[in-house]
Amino acid sequence: MEQTAFDDPAYRAAAVDLLGVLAYGELTAFERMAEDAKLAPTLDDKAELAALATTEFGHFQRLRDRLVQLGVDPMDAMRPFVTPLDAFHDHTAPSDWLEGLVKAYVGDGLANDFYREIASFVDAGTRALVLDVFADSGQAEFVVDRVRAAIDEDPKLGGRLALWGRRLVGEALSQAQRIAADRDPLAALLAGSVDRPGLDLAAIGRMFTRLTEAHTARMTALGLQA
């Protein structure tokens, strides 16, 4: 079944695009978490974030290996996404440790939800890999614990971090939509074909409702107004 799917050049290009954007996303997540660890207020926090960064790199390796398995150069697959993803991260650079945690949980979380939605249109093997890579590896518990503790200590932080979270969701949605629209194979995957149904307007509406609800749940978990 999977081999039949990859025999279709249009499908293959879409799957490679999906794996490429996710691989570069995980590579940059590793890089950002390792950098943010320098801002950690305690040694324990530094060690925890470094461990999460290592997990992100492991995810990158699995996606890279899948591309190699498909006979694709991982660097070639990631290259189209370097400029848009780097621009997003430059535009949403956190000013402190707490903003970095909220970005990792809220901003990255929403982008990951969007790519999970796309993964529902790919073959079973690729879909299973994507869902496994995005399974929570302890990041949520760590971030929620640290952010809630900081707000309990200084309630005024709540307003600033809530505004930051709202900005992140707007930027993350725009970035994900722009990437999907700019890459014809991904756009075609969402639109569907004769033998692979895609999203109609109603389905797109339901997808964005799910994305918004998941974002609201994350903000609530942090003790922030969405």
TrEMBL record:
SUPFAM superfamilies: Ferritin-like
Protein name: Ferritin-like domain-containing protein
UniProt-listed InterPro entries: Ferritin-like, Ferritin-like_SF, Ferritin_actino
Start and end residues of each Ferritin-like domain: 10-192
Pfam family name, one: MiaE_2
Superkingdom field: Bacteria
